[in-house]
Amino acid sequence: MGKKNNIRKQLGFIDVFKNETSFLVFILVLFVVASLVYKSTAIAMWFGFAIAGYSVVSNDSIQTIGTFLSSNANRKWWILWLYIGGLFVATIVLSFFLFDGDISFKRLATKGFSEDPVSFDFLQISAPILLLIITRMRMPISTTFLLLSSFATSSGAIHKVLAKSVGGYFIAFVVSFLIYMLLSKYFKTKFKGKAHPAWDAIQWITSGALWVLWIMQDAANIAVFLPRKLDYVELIAVVGVIFVGLGIIFYNKGGRIQQIVTTKTDVVDVRPATVIDFIYSFLMAFHLIYSTVPMSTTWVFLGLLGGREIAMNLRKTNHKSMAKTFLIVGKDVLLAVIGLVISIIIAYAVNITVRDEINGWFF
Length: 363
Fold this sequence. Notes:
about 375 residues; mainly alpha; 15 helices
């Protein structure tokens, strides 16, 4: 038992659910509740939001706070929680006041997602529960596809999201590949020994900026269950639920999906972790500026990691074989594609608009 606990600590997580049985019972209870409330719009929207809020951040934690958690594993979890949670509250409140009650930074103002939900299908409410299962299986799924696609109300909305997300993967891959082909040997020679204390401050600033940019892009995946314009009471409920959920995630050290990050080269050292966050922040800012169409930030993050790993292997600045590197990168892409297929199947089953759009791709 001692050896098992030691391995769990090295992986950097502590399970909230001590075994699979307790987790499965919890999931079963959620499905039962979903079946009872989905016909009541007022209850269903808040139930769906609460589960989506936790499940989205849990799955997407690898791309937003993954390197932050890895390189700050020696710090108390509640200090990290208060910092990231405080930024979340401030960012959502900012959107609320800037955009007249809209907490999605106008991501849901895009045609096809701008209407308030008036009714829910059981699968729409169940989607975030499925996301909990997928996260437990360490699959980096696109939460944008899984949750937003079933709410699309205009033809072409899914195609735009898909095109922007896949394009985002390739842009991130190329940018990351070029940067690390040019600079990975420089990083290898400079990032030796103990990091200067200033790096900690730089990483906290960079990780904070990345987290805020992610909220601005992906808050739509959570807010899609709610009215597009919230009042003050609803705003307090939103930030309160997510703030508590973040506390659970930080106590849980990111959960099992954190291993997507820990299997990559040099992510525990604060210096390379900061470089990753800086590049990703730049990519996120670029996508936010050029289009308001929602996108899968997960695909962008996986593209960044993929380009980085391959470039570092070619420059011989990591210790993995090329075969192992391609296996790691390919596994991430495969899991993301599986998640995409699951998302499209759910959207196809729930949403007649999406069904007609997808049918039009093939017939």
